[in-house]
Design goal:
329 residues; Arc Repressor Mutant, subunit A; alpha+beta; 14 helices
Length: 329
């Protein structure tokens, strides 16, 4: 059964009693430090995986305020602290908060500007990538890979990417030319097993003269079983230089249902356990979704745009300069 999208005030009444008994904190939410009290209560409930506070469950401001008999403003501030600790995230700005981690992992505001350095750190942590066969699409296709790109480009908030898309050359390349789809599944090796943790779909809108070379490079990586390569090195051409990585939306999501079949086929081909990314058909896991674009100085414009779905419990391993949040702060 899928996780609920609505919340129940009764679970907050029950967890408050459990918290008071476990911590001997009788006066929760009754003094001047209500926000701190409720932050500690909710953090404890998530860490202890109390009923209704497990991964994928919803935390709603209105339900929490009703169950804990406090104002929505107070509970909104307490839940915002959970958001800043990386315990909960929102799928859309007005959607309920959903639990994504038992322990503080990241500060979403810092993650937006952090540099993900998976290729280098995978080498140090016994991981690598497996690569799918390259395919070609057009943005107006009805296939499974075109629509997610259309939606992502329309919703991007990165100013550099938006400026790049505003140029005539860049728009012609993305909206009126064919696009190369480069997919890879990154994994960590644990207990002698390859366990998938990130699924990356990268769309490349290349100058026509570079299309054959980039496709040949991808096929070479597959043929030679080369597991470690950065996107920047794959696009290292004199005409595509000084690439800049622009981060855009960061939110919670799930692997596109239309992508599941291809992802599972890729995982089986290379004996990668991918259950942390796809879960079961009726109960997909809650993942961290982030997007970024590679763009260069004019007149090249935007060159590549990636959509990544990641097991959120692993993000702190691969984001450089990402401070961990103290759960008591």
């Amino acid at each position: 059964m899928a996780r609920p999208t609505a919340d129940d005030p009764a679970k907050y009444e029950k967890v408050l009693r459990a918290y008071q008994l476990a911590t001997h904190q009788a006066g929760v939410g009754t003094g001047a430090k209500k926000i701190e009290d409720f932050t500690a209560l909710l953090s404890w409930a998530v860490a202890k995986e109390q009923p209704g506070f497990q991964s994928g469950d919803v935390i709603g401001v209105a339900a929490a305020a009703a169950g804990l008999k406090s104002s929505r403003s107070t509970l909104n501030q307490a839940i915002d602290r959970l958001l800043r600790q990386g315990l909960v995230m929102q799928e859309t700005p007005k959607s309920p908060y959903r639990i994504v981690s038992r322990t503080p992992l990241l500060h979403p505001a810092w993650l937006a500007s952090a540099t993900i350095s998976a290729t280098r750190q995978l080498k140090e942590r016994g991981g690598a990538s497996v690569i799918a066969e390259p395919t070609w699409i057009a943005l107006d296709d009805a296939g499974e890979y075109a629509e997610p790109l259309r939606l992502a480009l329309a919703a991007t908030s990165d100013r550099a990417i938006k400026a790049s898309l505003a140029t005539a050359e860049c728009r012609r390349r993305w909206f009126h030319s064919r696009i190369l789809v480069f997919r890879r599944l990154r994994f960590l090796r644990r207990d002698k097993q390859q366990q998938g943790w990130l699924h990356e779909v990268t769309y490349m809108a290349l100058p026509a003269e570079l299309e054959p070379e980039v496709e040949e490079r991808i096929r070479y990586l597959i043929d030679q079983d080369i597991r470690m390569v950065s996107l920047g090195s794959l696009l290292s051409f004199d005409s595509v230089k000084q690439l800049t990585n622009g981060r855009t939306r960061i939110l919670v999501g799930q692997i596109e249902s239309r992508w599941r079949k291809d992802l599972l086929a890729l995982a089986r081909r290379y004996e990668v356990e991918a259950s942390s990314l796809v879960g079961r058909a009726r109960q997909p896991p809650t993942l961290l979704r982030w997007e970024y674009g590679h763009f260069a100085a004019k007149p090249v414009g935007l060159v590549a745009f990636s959509i990544c779905h990641e097991d959120p419990t692993q993000i702190h391993l691969f984001a450089r300069d990402l401070d961990l949040v103290n759960p008591s702060s």
